[in-house]
Amino acid sequence: MIAKRKPLLPTVLLVVLFAVLAALALFPFYCLALASLKPSKELLRYGLNVKLQPELLSFRNYAFLFSASAKKYLDWYQNSLLISAVYTVCCLLLSSMVGYGLAMYRFFGRNVIFVLVLLVMMVPVEIIILPLYKQMIAFRLIDTFSGVILPFVVSPLPIFFFRQYAAGLPKDFLDAGRIDGCSEYGIFFRIMVPLMAPAFGAMAILQALASWNSFVWPLIVIKTGSKMTLPIGLASLVTPYGNNYDILIAGSVLAILPILLVFVFFQRYFVSGLTVGGVKG
Amino acid sequence: MKADTAAVAAGKLEKGGAVKKLLYSPRIAPYVFVLPFVLSFLIFFAYPVFSTIQMSFQEVLPGQTRFIGLDNYKNLLSASFYTALLNSSRYTFWTLVVLIPLPLVLAVFLNSALMKWSSFFRSALFIPSLTSVVVAGTVFRLVFGSLDESVMNGFRHLFGLPTINWLAGSGTAMFVLVVLASWRYIGVNIIYFLSALQSIPQELYEAAEIDGAGVWHKFWKVTLPLLKPVSIYVITISIYGGYSMFTESFILWNGNRSPNDIGLTVVGLLYREGIEKNNLGFGSAVGITLLVITMIINVIQLKSFGLFKKEE
């Protein structure tokens, strides 16, 4: 081994520091998991503590989630899955088209449209939620899934991402496709979409996550309990008149679970999705 | 006669073909590609922005609206708007103080050759950002519960400190909000800084070493200046995030009603006025003010970083 020997002490110090930080980062998950296994009466009486008390632990709360009395929880889960899936598919299709169009063609108005994309990215959404709410009433989309999905389905961040990605693709494919008699749309769907697969991967994960976790807009649009998404359903359980901890805590654990699984399998895409645009700025 | 109809039909066909041909031509195709954005921009952005500006000068009642000039803005000079603005500003300030330097330093550590298991630690710190604010807020509500045995009160007891009701006092409540934000976003910011660090060419450090630069010197003279673009980006999104914070306090205090408004934020006020009280005019005025504030802060910070030079 010719490699320079690493000094041991700084390495040990760094590892210890990060071990402590990692423990702090994961500690709330431990608390949540522990609480989900305890009877809710215990939580109300003593609050959330870190005592293990094995005699109290059971999967009763989870069993309750799948019982008939917690039917609304399964409804919320279903709604969230449906909304996230539809949103993600539509968002990827539409924003990849826009991003690709902006990157591949030189046409009149291109720069104006790109500046508008950046503008939408820069204005906090919260500012337009009131007029959007009024608009949804006018369009009769209040309390519908379309109302949740439609206003944000063409989203500036993925457009920007796809534009950056498509700009890096060789334009030769475009000419080759044309010579072979492919239409402009054929070129996009048959040649470019497969080439942009990694971009689709990164954006699929980030957009699905954003939709799964989104709160303010669904809170405003959805009025009926059975149509709620998971986050607003869970939030509705926390009331000043007593908490439904048995559904809330175990339900929260199950709400995190799919995201954790996705993260474990697609870590790389999370990172590439996050860092585009930010760093090159 | 027959020949005529055939000709007309052919003409029609040609016309239909022409439309199709035009739609498929490389000149029109780009407009078809960007059409979804243009439509969505006009319907779900431009019109709402225009309409919220208009509403901010109106009293919006069901079925009728009345122009009232600047009255909504005059009403902003109220205690609750002042409270909301102060809370949002305090929150933004503290999240900036914690969430810029700390992730930067941690990213430098993680990137160092001395570091072991770097990707594991990076993942562990990133995972909190995947949870929804609703779940994260619920956990923090319980961890910072008011009862004797609640985690953080139990922790205080270790040092002989008494039990406190975290979410009842303005200072401790702000502390909980900032801890929650730090927990959720530290990993994300670390990744931003880390990817910028990894794009710094190693030769720069080697050149600095030849010039006799030590660790400290290399950090100040090479690393920090090259992290400027990503820092500006992170600061900008943190300011937006800080001033648009709402869900966190909605969850911590059972939905937008904290004692003495200690958790009221600007967006919380917008939600309360616009959605809960259906006072869309006043809510819009709050929104426009929020827009102006975030714009001003960003212009100031972009300008002070000298970022208004034209760049490609």
Short synopsis of the structure:
With 281 residues, chain A is mainly α. Chain A is 70% helix and 1% strand.
Account of the protein in words:
Chain A is mainly alpha-helical and 281 residues long. Helix content of chain A is 70%, strand content 1%. With 312 residues, chain B is mainly alpha-helical. In chain B, 71% of the residues lie in helices and 3% in strands. The mean pLDDT of chain B is 87. Chains A and B meet through helix 1, helix 4, helix 5, helix 6 and helix 10 of A and helix 2, helix 5, helix 6, helix 7 and helix 8 of B.
Helix and strand composition category of chain B: mainly alpha
Number of helices of chain B: 15
Residues in helices of chain A, as a percent range: over 70%
Largest interface: A-B, 97 and 102 residues
Overall shape of chain B: globular
Provide the low-confidence segments of chain B as ranges.
none
- Which consecutive residue ranges of chain A, at least 5 long each, have pLDDT under 50? none
Oligomer: heterodimer
What is the tally of beta strands of chain B?
2
